[in-house]
Amino acid sequence: MKTVKFLLAGALALAAASASFSLLAQTIKIGFITSYSGLNGNLGPYMERAVRLYIKEHQKELPPGVKIELITRDDTGPNPDKAKQLAQELIVRDKVNLLAGVIFTPNALAIAPLATEAKVPFVIMNAGTAVITTRSPYIARTSFTLWQSSYPLGQWASKKFKTAYTLVSDFGPGHDAETAFAQAFKEGGGNVLASVRVPLQNPDWAAYMQRVKDAKPDALMVFIPAGKTATAVMKNFSELGLDKAGIKLIGPGDITTEEELPNMGDVALGATTVFHWSAAGDRPANKAFIAAWKKEYGANETPNFLSVGSWDGTALIFEMIKQQKGKLDPDKSMEIAKGWKNPNSPRGPISIDPETRDIIQPEYLREVRKVGGQLMNVELETLGAAVKDPWKEQQKKK
Ligand code: PHB
């Protein structure tokens, strides 16, 4: 009898000890889905590196004993079935507290119902089609919408050009860029000569560029997913002589992403874009961000806008963890996301709109110029200091 009591007491003591231990050592699991292969598979590391760098720099701010475990998964490009399967495994098997990342809209849309069903907050760090955040109350977005850049681009362009031609990838963000630009350009008195949608993968750029050249617009507005595709567009634009024909290349900042500028070369000079961030931005927080990146990853490495969406997204996750002292409740986490503010993002002051859970941020007019021998997106003007997603603002009025 004595031995039984003794054993029982020992077991209870052990259980109590492990309970208090688990209170001390709390692990927050983040299921991080991005693209490491497939279309623009080189972009995933731009996001993951930002998350890891933020964690490294800010870990000391976490409540005592709280650790973050980042579980990374490759969705292999725009592949909603794969993204859904990965999210399901992360939720059910790995029991993640949060989902994060995601470059492509179709993937984010496939994950949204799972976030709702499992009540797992999903911090979107890239995918930019306006409608995404309406698909789950557990989504908050720290990246951008295409409407946020393409609508002010259209307004600006209508003051400079009489005619424009639009060329976009045929999927969600392309449709948004086309609609937003055309609406603002027409409202400002411009005339859209044609709106062409091209396949997401491997379109015959030379054929499309020849058609644009024949139409003789004052400006060509392009949206394609950031990365290698942008370099293909730029090269064909110049090889077919559209620049020499006096056609101005404009678009959201996806077409002049920082890491591709050296691959594009001087053909990119003069391309004018609207976006929420540039590596050339003169803000102290941006300079510190870029310096930290180079220190960690090498002097020749540069972050891009996917890095910034991921950096700020990690800052939001830290806020959720800090405010709840390491014990995450999904509904409380979403309440913290709504109205979260960061006056010191590398892009400038940002916040999450409590009504839509979408980011509110500055939009800059930029032009590709050479600075110290390097191609940069030089910020010329702030077109809006706190731009909300214009599509959602319009829906409210309907
Ligand atoms: C998207 O799929 O939402 C997307 C992909 C690449 C971009 C922007 C948006 O550059």
Q: For the terminal residues, how far apart are their CA atoms? A: 76 Å
**Helix-strand topology string:** HEHEHEHEEHEHEHEHEHEHHHEEEEH
From the alpha-carbon coordinates, what is the Rg to the nearest angstrom? Answer: 23 Å
Count up the helices: 13
Task: Supply the helix-strand structural class.
Answer: alpha/beta
| Average pLDDT metric | 94
User: In percent, how helical is the residue content?
Assistant: 40-55%
% residues in beta strands: 15-25%
Bound molecules: P-hydroxybenzoic acid
DSSP summary, beta strand count: 14
Shape: globular
Oligomerization status of the protein chains:
single chain
Largest sheet: 9 strands, mixed
Low-confidence stretches: 10-22
Topology at a glance:
Layout: H1 2-24, E1 26-34, H2 44-58, E2 66-74, H3 80-92, E3 98-101, H4 105-118, E4 122-124, E5 139-141, H5 146-160, E6 163-169, H6 172-187, E7 191-198, H7 205-215, E8 219-223, H8 228-239, E9 248-252, H9 261-264, E10 272-275, H10 284-297, H11 305-323, H12 330-337, E11 341-345, E12 348-352, E13 359-371, E14 374-387, H13 390-397
Parallel strand pairs: 1-2, 1-3, 3-4, 4-5, 6-7, 6-8, 8-9, 9-10
Antiparallel strand pairs: 10-13, 11-12, 12-13, 13-14
